[in-house]
Write a structure and sequence with these properties.
mainly alpha, 21 helices, cell membrane, transport
């Protein structure tokens, strides 16, 4: 009964439009006081949270993503990829997905990926005759690759909460990320065949390909530097974020000369606003997590699951359903922060690897990014395309089903996530 009352109170606060950070922190503090615990636990929990070295990666990756966004790197990436695959069936859609994947590997931000690639891809695809709903759905779903293909801010937060290796999580995200890219590409090519859109497009000349590729080469090199450095152990994710931000400035200011002083100021301000919001949510979630741990709620939930759920498959289906429902109300990072302490003990009791479970949660969080009413990517694409939210929401449905298929593949073949970090 206590669990139901706590969750009902939390949802009531959220539905009353209380900011997530204050709803979580306020609930946590109230629970501490009602339970007779010292309220000093709240500031102690917050201090221990903000003292983590790994969290420095969050503002640095956000800075890098915003610098690249303001520097117009997405335009160069899209032009380069389109010059090579634009003549394929559904080539413009394929170029969009690949561009999203590459930018995701640079920025680690879903919103930045959707906004950057969407700005250039949406008008180009609509001009080529693609249905608007398909275009909006493709960009909203393609943007979610930003939190699956490493570096990924939700993976950093998950690793911070669970004390698992962020590098291992990044490696584990590669396989599912590539699988999702291939599923999106396959669907786009079938869609182009069925609808006969973009037929008879002439392949770009080698001169055009060479020029476009050279323009995008510094950005691709940046992605390889970040990924290669983390995977080789040359530097930690936090160091990778700092190095990535430095090289993002070099690429946009020195090499491409596409970042203005005004753009840099806007990148700094937007990164600051997002960082403060994330840190406040993390702090509030830490207080809430401390309180529910003292109330033994995770242990009680684990006991209920152990008594009522007998197979790993049923557990995965139940967790997927819970996360999908929560995605209707919570934004992505809040879901990771709230549900990880609650669900992970049960997952470990069922025999799931914590790294695998983290990737599973991130894929489900991706679904939350494109489910109304609070799917952030829906609002990003709506703003970029200047269209109605309903148009975007209807367009993402086929891609949402493909993401569920990716979850099924991940369950049936765990090595899709675990091979690189543990068996390579």
């Amino acid at each position: 009964m206590t669990i139901v009352l706590i969750l009902a109170s939390l949802f009531t606060l959220l539905l009353a439009r209380v900011p997530v950070a204050f709803a979580l922190g306020g609930m946590g503090l109230a629970l501490l006081l009602l339970g007779g615990f010292s309220p000093l636990m709240a500031p102690q929990a917050i201090l221990s949270t903000l003292d983590g070295f790994i969290l420095l990666a969050v503002p640095l990756f956000l800075l890098m993503a915003n610098v690249l966004l303001k520097g117009g790197v997405g335009d160069d990436l899209f032009a380069a990829v389109n010059s090579w695959v634009g003549h394929w069936p559904g080539g413009l859609a394929v170029a969009t997905i690949i561009s999203c994947a590459i930018f995701a590997a640079i920025s680690g931000s879903s919103v930045a990926t959707a906004a950057t690639i969407g700005t250039v891809a949406i008008p180009a695809m609509i001009a080529r005759g693609y249905d608007k709903r398909f275009v909006y759905g493709l960009l909203a779903a393609g943007g979610t690759l930003g939190i699956l293909i490493p570096p990924s801010i939700p993976m950093i937060v998950y690793g911070f909460i669970t004390e698992e290796s962020v590098g291992a999580l990044f490696l584990a995200g590669v396989g599912p990320g590539i699988a999702l890219v291939l599923l999106f590409i396959g669907y786009s090519m079938v869609y182009a065949r069925v609808t006969t859109v973009q037929q008879g497009v002439t392949a770009a000349s080698m001169a055009v390909r060479r020029a476009a590729s050279l323009r995008a080469l510094p950005s691709i090199a940046l992605a390889m530097l970040i990924i290669g450095g983390i995977y080789s152990g040359a530097f930690t994710p936090t160091e990778a974020a700092a190095i990535g931000f430095t090289f993002a400035l070099i690429v946009t200011v020195v090499v491409l000369r596409s970042l203005s002083w005004q753009g840099f100021r806007e990148a700094l301000f937007e990164s600051m606003v997002t960082t403060v919001a994330i840190i406040l949510i993390i702090a509030g979630a830490k207080v809430f997590g401390k309180a529910i741990t003292l109330y033994r709620i995770p242990q009680d939930i684990s006991a209920i699951i152990a008594q009522t759920i007998e197979t790993p498959l049923v557990f995965v289906l139940v967790v997927a359903g819970v996360l999908l429902v929560m995605g209707l109300v919570f934004e992505a990072l809040s879901m990771v922060l709230i549900m990880t302490p609650v669900l992970l003990p049960s997952a470990l009791a069922m025999g799931f690897d914590p790294i695998w479970f983290g990737i599973f949660m991130v894929v489900m969080v991706e679904c939350a990014l494109i489910t109304p009413p609070v799917g952030l990517n829906l609002y990003v694409i709506q703003a970029v395309a200047r269209t109605g939210l309903g148009e975007v929401a209807r367009g993402v449905l086929p891609f949402l089903l493909l993401m569920f298929l990716c979850v099924a593949i991940l369950y049936l073949w765990p090595d899709l996530a675990l091979y690189l970090p543990f068996k390579l």
